[in-house]
Automatic annotation (TrEMBL):
SUPFAM superfamilies in UniProt: ATPase domain of HSP90 chaperone/DNA topoisomerase II/histidine kinase, GAF domain-like, PP2C-like, PYP-like sensor domain (PAS domain)
Source organism superkingdom: Bacteria
Lineage: Bacteria, Bacillati, Actinomycetota, Actinomycetes, Kitasatosporales
NCBIfam families found in the cross-reference section: sensory_box
Pfam families linked: GAF_2, GAF_3, HATPase_c_2, PAS_4, SpoIIE
PROSITE patterns in the record: PAS
Region (Disordered): 1-20
The protein's name in its UniProt record: SpoIIE family protein phosphatase
InterPro entries noted in UniProt: Bact_Sigma-Reg, GAF, GAF-like_dom_sf, HATPase_C_sf, HATPase_dom, PAS, PAS-like_dom_sf, PAS_4
Organism: Streptomyces physcomitrii
Length: 909
C-alpha cells in the first residue's frame, strides 16, 4: 500500500480525473463551502487483504479529521467499492479522501475501464439486493448524499459524498448513562498535562498539571528535548520512536515520563500536530496517568460497525478479526501488538491486557505489548512458558483464573499488580506456540470460558499476521546485526591500543544495544575486576554513573557464556534515589533538573532498569566483563542479548590482543632502553652532544649505537658504531658491543686490544654474529684547554675535524671492520683538538641519506660542517640533523647517530 497525506496549505495538483473530482465536489456542494481543506490518498494492491487495509485507512483518516459521525457509512461504502476493484476487477485500487468544511468526498478508482453507459445515477431501484453485482452502487444510492461513476480510457472511478451533520456548538458525541461502579477510576482530581513540542522536538509549553504529574516546574524543562524525559518502549531500527510519533498528524498510545523522583510515570498520551498563524508546526501532547486513559482515549466502535454487505470473505457482515486488529499495517509489529492488547482489553472490558511472544526455543515468553499494567511490566521482560504444573500453568493452553490470590504465581507477569482474575490464550501457527494473549481485571470472577472462547477466536485470527510481522522484524534485525558485527570487527581489528579498544567496545554498544555500558577488566587471575570504562548515551550522566558503579562491588567473573542479570546497580541506584529524596524533603528542597538532587535522581533513573553482564573470555581466560544497562523498568530483548554476546566475543579477543601487544611493546621498550647508555658524563673543558634516531616503528634502539664513559681519572672512552641491519637482531649485537667496550677499556686495554677482543666475541656468536663498523677512542682533556684523542676507525665513516678557520679534514684513517676476520692488526691514531675545534662522528645512516639517485655522502656532510664554525657542539649536531632530514622527503630507512665533541675557546666562548 502506498499512502500520501496532505494537510491544509500543502495541496499538490492532481492530474486529470483528480482535478475533475475536486471540481465535482465543488459543484455538488453548491452554495455551501467549496474549499478543500485536506486530502489523503492511498493505493492498494489487488489482493484480498487490501479490503481490510482500505477500511482502516479511511477510518483512521476520518477519525483524524474528527468526523466520527460518518465513519461507519464511509467504511461500509469503501469496503464495497474496494472489493469490486481488487477482487472482481482484479486491479489495484486508488482511494482518495477529500475534506471540506461541510462534506467529505471519497473516490475509489481501478484500472479496469468500461465503455458501456452505466445505469442512471438517479435510479434507486437497481434490482434485488441478493444479486451478485451492483450492491456497491445500491449502497451508494442509499447512504451517500451524492455519488457517481466516471470513466476514462484507462480508469473507472466511483465516488460518493457524505454531508457532515449539523450540530450545536459543544455537542460532539455522547455515551449511555452508566452506574458509578463501572465508571473509569480516577485518583482525586484528574490532571491533564498539556505539553507543546516545537519543530525541533523541544518543550515550548508546560502547564501546571504537568508540573503536578511529573514534579518539574515549567522553567526547568522548557527548551529541553522531550526525549530527555520520555521512557519510550522502542528498539532502535525496528519500531516507531517518539521523534517519529511527534511528526504524525495524530497519535495515541502509552509510554512513560521520567519524574523528578527518578521513577517512570506510565502515561496515556494523545498527540495532535498543529500549526500557528505563521505556518510553524508543533505538537500538542495531552498526558494523563495510564489508568485514567478513558479521559483521552478515542471511543472504539462496536463489533460489526464496519461490516460490508458482501463482495469478499474479508468483508463479512460481522468480522471480529478486522474490528480486533485495527489499522496498523501487517508488517508494523509494534503498532499491531499494541493495538491488539488495547482492543483485547476493551473487548473483554478488562483493566489490563498483555501480549507475549515466544522465544525461538519456546521455553520463554517476552513481553512485547501491555496496557493497564505498572511500568515494571515493560517490554522484553521474560517469563517461562511453563509457569507451574497442570494445564492451567502452561501458556500452551487457554486458561481462566477466577482469583489469582488463590493460586499465586500462576501468571508471573501479574505478580504484585493488583489483578485478581485473568484469562490467557495461546497464539499458535501450524500447531507451534508463537505467543500468549491475556486480559486481566482487578476484581475476582470476572471471566468465564465464554470470554476465553471469544479471546481465543480473536487470537487465532491474528496469530498468523503477528507471526508474519515478527519474522519480518527478526529478518531486518538479523540483517542489521550482521552489518553491525562486520563494522564492529573492522573497527576492533584496526587498533592494538588497549584504551582505544575499551572506548570502541563501549561506543559500539551505546546507544545501539543499551542505554549505558561499563567495561571491567582483570589484569591476571589473582586480581579483582577493575572498572576501566563507563559510557552513557547522555554525557552529563557519565560521571554520576561512574561514581555509582565505583561504590558497589564488581560482578563476579563467571566464564559461563551468555548474559546474566546483575541487580546490584539497580538496587544501589534506588537506594541512592531514596536517600536523596528523603534528604531533600527534610531540607524542603524541590528536585530540579541540573541540581545535585536532580542529577542523583536522573542517574538512578538511568541505571534503575535491567542490567546484564557478559563475560569477556579470550584464550580460555576471563579477562573482563561487559556490562549493559537500561533505564528504569526497561528490559533487553533476546535478540539484542544474542547480538551483544557475539560482540563480546569479538571484543574480548581484540582486548586480549591489545593487552598482549602492550605487554610485548613494554618489554621491548624496556630491553631497548637497557641498550642505551645512561646519562652522558660531564667531561671537563669538552662539550659533548649526541643525537640518535632508530629506524622502524616502535624501535628505540637499532643497529647504530654510541657511548661515552669514564675509564679512569682524567680519561674517557667514546664510541660510535653501526651493526649490519636494523631491528632486534642488530640491537642484540649492539648490547654486546657496548658492554664489552666498557668492560675491556676499564680493564686497562688500549684501543686496538679492545677492538680485537670485541671482534673475537662477535665471531663467537656464530650464525647470530653480524659485522660491525666501529669508531672507538680515548679522550684526555688537557690543562691548556686542548684535548688529546687516540682513535681507531674499524670500517666506520671517518671522523671529521672542524678547525676554527672553517677547514674540515678527516681525523683518522680507515681500518678493517669487525666480525669478519679472525686476525686483525689494528692501530690507534692520536689527534689533538685545539680550543674551538670540533670532532664530528656519524654513522652511515647520515652519509647514505638518499633522494632518488642523489646521496648526501662524505662531501655533502663536509659541506654542512664547514658552515658550523663558532657553533656549540649541540648546535653543530642539530644543524647536521636538519640538513639530513631536509635532504630527502621520505622517512629515514636506516638508523642514524651523531656524536659531536668540541673544545671551547679560552676567551671566545
Amino acid at each position: 500500500m502506498t499512502t500520501g497525506l496532505h494537510l491544509p496549505g500543502e495541496h499538490t495538483p492532481e492530474p486529470g480525473a483528480h482535478e475533475a473530482g475536486r471540481q465535482a465536489l465543488h459543484d455538488d456542494i453548491g452554495t455551501r463551502s467549496s474549499v478543500i481543506t485536506a486530502r489523503a490518498a492511498a493505493t492498494f494492491d489487488p489482493v484480498g487483504r487490501s479490503v481490510a487495509t482500505a477500511r482502516s485507512f479511511v477510518r483512521d483518516t476520518l477519525q483524524g479529521w474528527g468526523f466520527t459521525d460518518i465513519i461507519d457509512d464511509a467504511v461500509v461504502l469503501t469496503s464495497e467499492l474496494v472489493t469490486n476493484a481488487v477482487v472482481h476487477a482484479g486491479t489495484a485500487a486508488e482511494v482518495l479522501c477529500l475534506r471540506s468544511e461541510d462534506a467529505v468526498r471519497i473516490e475509489v478508482a481501478d484500472r479496469y475501464p468500461e465503455r458501456e453507459i452505466p445505469l442512471q445515477q438517479s435510479a434507486v431501484n437497481m434490482g434485488s439486493p441478493d444479486r451478485e453485482g451492483g450492491r456497491g452502487l445500491q449502497l451508494c444510492a442509499a447512504l451517500a448524499g451524492n455519488w457517481g461513476v466516471e470513466y476514462s480510457p484507462t480508469h473507472k472511478r466511483v465516488w460518493f459524498q457524505l454531508d457532515l451533520p449539523a450540530r450545536s456548538v459543544g455537542t460532539r458525541s455522547a455515551g449511555p448513562t452508566l452506574p458509578p461502579d463501572v465508571l473509569p477510576l480516577a485518583d482525586g482530581r484528574v490532571r491533564v498535562g498539556v505539553v507543546q513540542i516545537d519543530r525541533a522536538g523541544s518543550i515550548s509549553a508546560w502547564n501546571d498539571d504537568a508540573e503536578d504529574l511529573f514534579g518539574y516546574p515549567a522553567d526547568q524543562v522548557t527548551g529541553k528535548p522531550l526525549t530527555d524525559l520520555a521512557a519510550w518502549p522502542h528498539t532502535p531500527g525496528i519500531s516507531t520512536g517518539i521523534a517519529e510519533a511527534l511528526q504524525l498528524s495524530r497519535w495515541e498510545g502509552s509510554y512513560g515520563i521520567r519524574s523528578s523522583d527518578g521513577r517512570v510515570t506510565p502515561v496515556y498520551a494523545s498527540h495532535l500536530r498543529v500549526r500557528d498563524a505563521d505556518g510553524e508546526p508543533s505538537t500538542v501532547c495531552l498526558l494523563v496517568r495510564d489508568h485514567e486513559r478513558a479521559v483521552l482515549q478515542t471511543p472504539l466502535r462496536a463489533n460489526g460497525t464496519d461490516s460490508g454487505s458482501g463482495g469478499s470473505q474479508e468483508a463479512g457482515a460481522a468480522d471480529p478479526f478486522e474490528v480486533f486488529i485495527g489499522s496498523p499495517a501487517p508488517d508494523d509489529l509494534d503498532g499491531l501488538l499494541q493495538r491488539t492488547v488495547e482492543r483485547a482489553r476493551d473487548m473483554l472490558d478488562g483493566d489490563a491486557a498483555f501480549l507475549l511472544l515466544a522465544t525461538d526455543d519456546e521455553t520463554e515468553l517476552e513481553v512485547r505489548a501491555s496496557t493497564g499494567l505498572p511500568s515494571a511490566r515493560q517490554r522484553f521482560a521474560r517469563v517461562p512458558v511453563e509457569a507451574g504444573p497442570g494445564r492451567y500453568g502452561s501458556a500452551r493452553m487457554p486458561a481462566v483464573h477466577e482469583d489469582l490470590t488463590v493460586v499465586p504465581g500462576a501468571v508471573p507477569l501479574l505478580g504484585s499488580t493488583g489483578m485478581r482474575s485473568v484469562v490467557t490464550v495461546p497464539l499458535k501457527v501450524e500447531g507451534r506456540l508463537t505467543g500468549s494473549l491475556g486480559v486481566a481485571a482487578e476484581g475476582p470472577g470476572r471471566y468465564s470460558n465464554e470470554e476465553a472462547l471469544r479471546l481465543q477466536f480473536a487470537a487465532d485470527r491474528i496469530a498468523l499476521a503477528v507471526e508474519s510481522a515478527r519474522l519480518g522484524e527478526l529478518e531486518r534485525l538479523r540483517r542489521g546485526s550482521l552489518s553491525f558485527l562486520v563494522e564492529a570487527s573492522d573497527l576492533l581489528a584496526g587498533t592494538l591500543d588497549r584504551d582505544q579498544t575499551l572506548a570502541l567496545m563501549a561506543q559500539m554498544t551505546v546507544p545501539t544495544l543499551a542505554t549505558w555500558c561499563a567495561v571491567y577488566t582483570i589484569a591476571d587471575q589473582a586480581s579483582d575486576p577493575y572498572l576501566s570504562y563507563v559510557l552513557h548515551e547522555d554525557e552529563e550522566r557519565i560521571d554520576g554513573l561512574k561514581a555509582l558503579l565505583s561504590r558497589i562491588a564488581p560482578p563476579d567473573p563467571v566464564p559461563t557464556p551468555g548474559a546474566r542479570i546483575w541487580n546490584a546497580p539497580a538496587t544501589a541506584a534506588h537506594e541512592a534515589a531514596l536517600r536523596t529524596s528523603m534528604r531533600s524533603l527534610d531540607l524542603g528542597e524541590t528536585p530540579r533538573l541540573g541540581s545535585g538532587v536532580g542529577t542523583t535522581l536522573a542517574t538512578a533513573s538511568a541505571v534503575g532498569g535491567e542490567t546484564v553482564v557478559l563475560p569477556l573470555v579470550a584464550r580460555n581466560r576471563v579477562i573482563g566483563m561487559l556490562t549493559l544497562g537500561k533505564p528504569t523498568d526497561e528490559h533487553f530483548r533476546q535478540e539484542i542479548l544474542e547480538l551483544a554476546e557475539d560482540l563480546s566475543r569479538r571484543a574480548a579477543l581484540a582486548l586480549d590482543n591489545a593487552r598482549l601487544y602492550s605487554e610485548r611493546t613494554a618489554i621491548s621498550q624496556s630491553l631497548q632502553r637497557s641498550l642505551l647508555p645512561p646519562e652522558l658524563p660531564q667531561v671537563p673543558n669538552v662539550e659533548v652532544e649526541v643525537i640518535y634516531r632508530a629506524a622502524g616503528e616502535g624501535n628505540e634502539v637499532g643497529g647504530d649505537f654510541y657511548d661515552l664513559f669514564p675509564i679512569r681519572d682524567g680519561a674517557y672512552g667514546f664510541a660510535i658504531g653501526d651493526v649490519c641491519g636494523t631491528g632486534p637482531e642488530a640491537a642484540a649485537v649492539t648490547g654486546l658491543a657496548r658492554h664489552a667496550l666498557r668492560l675491556l677499556a676499564r680493564e686497562g686495554f688500549g684501543g686496538p686490544a679492545v677492538l680485537e677482543r670485541l671482534n673475537s666475541a662477535i665471531l663467537d656468536e656464530g650464525a647470530r654474529s653480524r659485522f660491525l663498523t666501529l669508531l672507538y677512542g680515548e679522550l684526555w682533556p688537557q690543562e691548556d684547554g686542548s684535548a688529546v684523542l687516540k682513535v681507531v676507525c674499524a670500517g666506520h665513516p671517518l671522523p671529521l675535524r672542524l678547525r676554527q678557520d672553517g677547514s674540515v679534514e678527516p681525523a683518522a684513517e680507515p681500518q678493517p671492520l669487525l666480525g669478519v676476520m679472525d686476525d686483525l692488526e689494528l692501530y690507534e691514531q692520536t689527534v689533538t683538538l685545539d680550543p674551538g675545534d670540533v670532532l664530528l662522528c656519524v654513522t652511515d645512516g647520515v652519509t647514505e641519506r638518499r633522494e632518488g639517485t642523489r646521496m648526501l655522502g662524505d662531501d655533502g656532510l663536509t659541506e654542512v660542517l664547514t658552515t658550523c664554525t663558532g657553533l656549540t657542539a649541540g648546535a653543530v649536531a642539530a644543524r647536521v640533523m636538519r640538513a639530513v632530514e631536509r635532504f630527502a622527503s621520505d622517512a629515514p630507512s636506516d638508523d642514524m647517530a651523531i656524536l659531536a665533541m668540541r673544545v671551547p675557546g679560552l676567551h671566545t666562548d
